[in-house]
């Protein structure tokens, strides 16, 4: 990182405690710690472990065959930040005013300042410093420093876990599908304790999961309960060990210095390979760094866990993984940290048995259908028109596999994981699709399908789905031939054959794509243009998002998009559409898109930038990059919008920089610099090479930081990139 970048309290528009808890939260892929108020927050929640969940029964008024039977809900675990502070008369300092908060994105250290008061209105100061270990991912450390205010006497602190506490709100019924549900089948118990440490176990009744958390004083100097003299301006520090699910680990306790060092070294390496910087707008530069910081914190790194829609910053969406991972978040990792991208795809591979079972439940004898929303890979969505019917997910995963292989040529991954997933998803599309006749031509179609736009459901031939399926077939064909050459035995073990690969190629060539002749654009589906346009002029602002105020069937009757759908396909497959048609499509679909989904604006920003419409690109990007810092969607308190965090990277790198990989496998850059910026710079990893790309007015500078020489296309002209810096003028001179 070129300079220290810190997020301060003044950089966050909303002072709502829930928002601040999410915005300043910590995570390391294994567990997350919300930045709760150490004095006033609930003691029994605030910590989330990736993949630690409980089942509950789904209740249907009218059920049908193969509806999912169980919810999966991430479990909120006891608050690691909570501390109780008493005066010498045993009166508790129960009131806490947040004075300042500062998160250092260069090293992952959070510093806070509070003013505490008791019922007598006496005050003391408390400064809090904390960090989460990014290397040894089971550790978190926090230090409290106290100073006298109007109260000058001794204080007593208690850092023991509190396992039972009444909640301000409760209820199983949740009208907002973005939120989580209360769990009543969680057991918390102390399993070991002494003066310097305490271990608790949290277990679930239905999913049969158990995890242990240990609190301990640093350097044997901080008992969990202790008397402190304010005249000494005392400090106490504590570490936490968050174990593995259903394992009893034996971890050597780390001191605070080690935790902070491991955090700082991780962030140094992360920024070294994947920093994106904006020159000329410090506010947006900070927001972009923040988004990348939080995206890294939320990501599972073990092949067993993934990225929840809210990451580890909050329990919203019940901790479920969606298609967001492959479409919005994996791209960042493919081009900055391919090993993490690989782990996220291995997670999908590890859910393949669930996916095969789901396909059989849908009447498909071959292939696999991955879960729309899940933690462990088992489908949990009770509303199939907006979940199971959105089987473009299979194609989304295939798309990510293809991009990962194209950017790494990781043959071991292809042999052990990648091709099997491509084969199974291609088989599903083959079995679930159908041959049809159109204008005396035999074409392949997909019926009763829901695309990315959840305001349109159960239609025929969603353009995005058909495009993703075609890509899936092509990848299975091409990479199947590669695997057959490299590992014929492995290829045969999967039951694949040349004949099957040829059938995939044939289907891909004959997939039908709906087109609207009147507007000369790709149609979102077969019937989209036969519907009336949603009455936007008659819809009050307080009725958005529409899904919370109108019955789904009412919404489905209209042309209205929750988010990018057809235009998302245009972004993913730039070689399938010319500039004029792209402009027509963008203009039409933009007018009927509400952006009720946080996944929407980044795509419109990236496409507008590619078209050279910099005013719109910049406007959409400004909303995208600061979405959670401004609480644009109104629900940041439930957790950050992780897909949007990845989307902000997409907006810059694939939008303003115009980065894409051609069908021939060459890296391509078509820069568009917003007039509001002096320039921007980013780093990417591509096929074992580290590139630094700097774009200023009139010039693109590319440096091969590490790796062998390569060809790169800039402004449609090919260049040989050597170790020396390559300067390219805007006109390709």
TrEMBL record:
GO MF terms listed in the record are: alpha,alpha-trehalose phosphorylase activity; carbohydrate binding; hydrolase activity, hydrolyzing O-glycosyl compounds
Q: Which residues form the Glycoside hydrolase family 65 C-terminal domain?
A: 663-721
Its GO biological process annotations read: carbohydrate metabolic process
Protein keywords = Glycosyltransferase, Transferase
Enzyme class comes to: transferase
Q: Which Pfam families match?
A: Glyco_hydro_65C, Glyco_hydro_65m, Glyco_hydro_65N
Q: What is its EC number?
A: 2.4.1.64
Q: Where does substrate bind?
A: 323-324, 562-563
Q: Where is the Glycoside hydrolase family 65 central catalytic domain?
A: 290-649
Classification via SUPFAM superfamilies: Galactose mutarotase-like, Six-hairpin glycosidases
Q: Which segments constitute the Glycoside hydrolase family 65 N-terminal domain?
A: 15-213
The residues responsible for catalysis, as annotated, are 454 (proton donor)
Q: Which domain of life is it from?
A: Bacteria
Listed PANTHER family: GLYCOSYL HYDROLASE-RELATED (PTHR11051), PROTEIN-GLUCOSYLGALACTOSYLHYDROXYLYSINE GLUCOSIDASE (PTHR11051:SF8)
Member of which family? Belongs to the glycosyl hydrolase 65 family.
Record protein name field = Alpha,alpha-trehalose phosphorylase TreP
Organism of this sequence: Apilactobacillus kunkeei EFB6
């Amino acid at each position: 990182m070129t300079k220290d970048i810190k997020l301060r309290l003044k950089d966050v528009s909303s002072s709502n405690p829930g928002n601040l808890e999410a915005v300043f939260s910590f995570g390391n892929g294994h567990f997350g710690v919300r930045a709760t108020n150490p004095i006033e927050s609930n003691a029994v929640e605030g910590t989330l472990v990736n993949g630690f969940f409980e089942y509950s029964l789904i209740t249907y008024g009218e059920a049908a065959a193969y509806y999912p039977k169980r919810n999966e809900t991430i479990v909120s675990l006891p608050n690691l930040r909570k501390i109780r502070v008493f005066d010498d008369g045993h009166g508790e300092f129960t009131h806490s005013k947040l004075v300042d908060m500062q998160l250092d994105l260069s090293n992952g250290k959070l510093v806070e300042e509070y003013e505490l008061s008791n019922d007598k209105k006496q005050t003391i100061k408390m400064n809090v410093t904390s960090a989460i270990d990014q290397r040894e991912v089971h550790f978190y450390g926090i230090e409290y420093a106290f100073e006298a205010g109007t109260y000058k006497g001794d204080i007593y602190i208690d850092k023991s876990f509190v396992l039972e506490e009444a909640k301000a709100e409760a209820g199983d019924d949740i009208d907002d599908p973005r939120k989580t549900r209360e769990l009543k089948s969680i057991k918390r118990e102390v399993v070991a304790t002494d003066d310097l440490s305490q271990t608790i176990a949290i277990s679930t009744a239905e999913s049969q999961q158990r995890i242990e958390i240990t609190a301990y004083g640093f350097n044997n100097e901080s008992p969990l309960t202790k008397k402190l003299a304010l005249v000494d301006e005392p400090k106490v520090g504590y570490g936490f060990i968050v174990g593995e699910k259903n394992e009893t680990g034996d971890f050597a306790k780390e001191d605070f210095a080690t935790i902070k060092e491991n955090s700082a070294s991780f962030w140094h390496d992360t920024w070294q390979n994947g920093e994106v910087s904006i020159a000329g707008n410090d506010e947006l530069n900070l927001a972009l760094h923040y988004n990348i910081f939080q995206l890294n914190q939320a990501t599972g790194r073990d092949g067993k866990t993934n990225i929840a829609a809210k990451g580890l910053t909050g329990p919203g969406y019940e901790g479920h993984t969606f298609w967001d991972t492959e479409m919005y978040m994996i791209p960042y990792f493919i081009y900055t940290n391919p090993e993490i991208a690989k782990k996220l795809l291995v997670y999908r591979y590890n859910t393949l048995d669930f996916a095969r079972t789901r396909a059989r439940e849908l009447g498909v004898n071959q292939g696999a259908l991955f879960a729309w929303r899940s933690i462990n890979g088992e489908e949990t969505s009770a509303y199939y028109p907006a979940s199971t019917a959105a089987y473009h997910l299979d194609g989304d995963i295939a798309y990510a596999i293809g991009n990962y292989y194209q950017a790494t040529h990781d043959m071991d991954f292809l042999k052990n994981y990648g091709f099997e997933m491509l084969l199974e998803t291609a088989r599903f599309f083959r079995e679930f699709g159908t041959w049809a006749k159109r204008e005396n031509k035999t074409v392949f179609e997909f019926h009763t399908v829901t695309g990315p736009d959840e305001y349109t459901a159960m239609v025929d031939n969603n353009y995005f789905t058909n495009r993703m399926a075609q890509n899936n077939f092509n990848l299975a064909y091409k990479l199947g031939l590669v695997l057959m050459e490299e590992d014929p035995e492995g290829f045969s073990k999967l039951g694949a054959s040349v004949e099957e690969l040829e059938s995939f190629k044939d289907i891909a060539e004959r997939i039908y794509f709906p087109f609207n002749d009147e507007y000369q654009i790709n149609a979102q589906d077969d019937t989209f243009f036969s519907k009336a346009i949603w009455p936007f002029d008659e819809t009050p602002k307080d009725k958005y998002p529409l899904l919370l105020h109108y019955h789904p069937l009412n919404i489905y009757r209209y042309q209205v998009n929750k988010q990018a759908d057809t235009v998302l396909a245009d972004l993913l497959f730039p070689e399938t559409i010319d500039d004029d048609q792209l402009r027509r499509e963008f203009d039409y679909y933009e007018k009927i898109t509400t952006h009720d989904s946080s996944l929407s604006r980044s795509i419109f920003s990236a496409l507008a930038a590619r078209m050279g419409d910099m005013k719109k690109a910049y406007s959409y990007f400004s909303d995208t990059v600061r979405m959670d810092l401004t609480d644009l969607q109104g629900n940041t308190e439930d957790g950050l919008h992780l897909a949007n965090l990845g989307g902000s990277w997409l907006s810059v790198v694939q939008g303003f920089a115009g980065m894409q990989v051609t069908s021939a496998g060459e890296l391509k850059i078509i820069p568009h610099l917003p007039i509001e910026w002096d320039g921007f710079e980013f780093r990417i990893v591509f096929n074992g090479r580290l590139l630094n790309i700097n774009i200023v007015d009139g010039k693109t500078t590319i440096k091969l930081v590490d790796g062998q020489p390569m060809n790169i296309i800039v402004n449609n002209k090919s260049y040989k990139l050597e170790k020396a810096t390559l300067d390219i003028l805007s006109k390709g001179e």
